[in-house]
Amino acid sequence: MKIKAVIVEDSRLARNELKELIKKHEEIELVGEAENVDSGFELIQNTRPDLLFLDINMPEKDGFELLELLDEVPITVFTTAFDEYAIKSFEYNALDYLLKPVSDKRFAMAMDKVNVKLENKEGEKAGYGKKLTENSQIFIKDGEACWLVKIGEIILFEIVGNYTRVFFEDKKPLLYKSLNQIEDKLPETSFFRANRQQIVNTNYIENVVPWFNGKLKLSLKNGEEIEVSRRQSYIFKDKMSL
């Protein structure tokens, strides 16, 4: 199976270097390239790639802003000359972070990760795509502690590196699953993706207030406060209105 990929990178030289690396991997089909966030957004909407090679520092808007614009985010591999964004990149659920210039060996390691990720996705589609209900129970093990928790009793899911923190009662254990994996199974009637990092149970929202730049801020019954991204704020208003 071919892996459809796009490059969003403002440097023509960097794009050409990536294309030379991609040529050595027959499983990757490059379906387009863009030099800024706006054209990159349009390219991704039109091609629906499996894989995105994304620069961070670009004129006007950066790579993180592009990810904020997307409803469906491809597997993302950041490519940058700067290492100070590494931690932030994984907050955006990036699969890998390549420092320029990228060696053949380091690129191949990233592609191994991509292949594993796609194989896992196919496995989920084949056997694990069934939606959960509010009464469904999930098993959570964090260290020596274990819980069997009803989905409807979970207040919030939040990304923590490669893990997801699960909030219920006064507990906050970590689950070794991505937020995207979890979102695919949750009942849409009660769970809402507030931003790139958090999914909230709308039954536990105590208050909603307007926030900056068209965003909303949610106060939950456990005391947590969640800032809804601008794009998701519009969707939230539509979803929760009569």
From TrEMBL:
Residues 138-242 form the HTH LytTR-type domain. PROSITE patterns: HTH_LYTTR, RESPONSE_REGULATORY. The keyword Phosphoprotein applies. The modification 4-aspartylphosphate is found at residue 55. Residues 4-115 form the Response regulatory domain. It comes from the Bacteria. Keywords: Phosphoprotein. PANTHER family: STAGE 0 SPORULATION PROTEIN A HOMOLOG, TRANSCRIPTIONAL REGULATOR-RELATED. This is LytR/AlgR family response regulator transcription factor. It comes from Flagellimonas marina.
